[in-house]
Amino acid sequence: MPVKSYKPYTPSRRQMTTSDFSDLTTSRPEKRLTKGLRKNGGRNNTGRITVRHIGGGHKRAYRYIDFKRNKFGVPGTVKTIEYDPNRSARIALVFYADGDKRYILQPAGLKVGETIMSGPGAEIKVGNALPLINIPDGSFVHNIEIVVGRGGQMVRSAGGQAQLMGKDAGYAQIKLPSGEIRIVPDRCLATLGQVSNVDNESIVLGNAGRSRRLGRRPHVRGTAMNSCDHPMGGGRGKSKGGNHPRSPWNQLAKGLKTRNPKKVWGWMVVRDRRKANKSQG
Predict the structure, then answer these.
(1) Concatenated DSSP letters for the chain?
(2) How confident is the prediction for the chain on average, in pLDDT?
(3) What pLDDT is attached to residue 240?
(4) pLDDT-based confidence at 166, cuts 50/70/90?
């Protein structure tokens, strides 16, 4: 999917890039597989802001995505490749042989008219979903389950792919895009191939308006605030000393470990992503 640039008739236009959307085959979603999406502005069920810098944005409809891929043994034909405003990847509308219609994450290279299938007996090809135990070692996969039957939870964003390193004693070792290696039950499903829209990381928004249409509000530096608003605020002029970088709630922002290794998923991490990045550097 090529990236489109523009003539610099304004300063922001010089850096701006967009997708040319040449890979899409329709502009209208399947109405039965959508619902209205109500915005929450980063607030939880009690009305408190729990995620800052969220609000506004363009009106969207949510597309129901089949992350479970549980239509075992039923072949499906790809009918359309569509844009999804709720995620960075493209989605594909699949018509199954039993008359069912579902959206799936489009793997890179999957085209309209191709047939896909799920289940242990599916062929080893891009777009098919199989248990990890049935996938050859070294294969690249995405939309990986953590719990059998729950649906894919890992490696779902544009261009993402994880590598199956090996299988042993009922578990499979997976190397994630971050470099982290973790184990998951080898009965968990994964989809072969790389997630579509690989060039998404090359997109440059270019101006503030595009960011606001995505629902992203301005992010203000703590040092630019008053001392009553942020631990790093206040002072006469710029001040960098006297206080380590921290959040508005006085949580240290660099180096403090906030992950609880005793939680249920901690034992699944074989190699932490931070250690992996250090060894690569």
Answers:
(1) -PEEE---SSHHHHH-EEE--TT---SS--GGGEEE----TTB-TTS-B-SSSB------EEEPB--S---BT--EEEEEEE--TTSSS-EEEEEETTS-EEEEEPBTT--TT-EE-BSTTS-SSTT-EEEGGGSPTT-EEESEESSTTT-EEES-STT--EEEEEEETTEEEEE-TTS-EEEEETTSEEEES-BS-GGGGG----SHHHHHHTTBPP---GGGS-TTT-TT--SSS---SSS--B-TTS-B-SS-----TTSTTGGGEEE-HHHHHHHH-
(2) 92
(3) 75
(4) very high
pTM value? 0.90
pLDDT, tens only, 173-216: 999 999 999 999 999 999 999 999 999 999 999 999 999 999 99
Domain spans of the chain, in order of start = 3-169+188-201, 220-250
Question: Which pLDDT score, from 0 to 100, does residue 1 have?
Answer: 66
> What does the pLDDT average to over 130-148?
96
Q: Are strands 189-192 and 269-271 parallel, antiparallel or unpaired?
A: unpaired
| pLDDT attached to residue 188 | 97
**Residue 14 pLDDT > 80:** yes
DSSP 31-85: GGGEEE----TTB-TTS-B-SSSB------EEEPB--S---BT--EEEEEEE--T
**CATH architecture entry for 3-169+188-201:** Beta Barrel (2.40)
Query: How far apart, in whole angstroms, are the C-alpha atoms of residue 162 and residue 139?
Result: 8
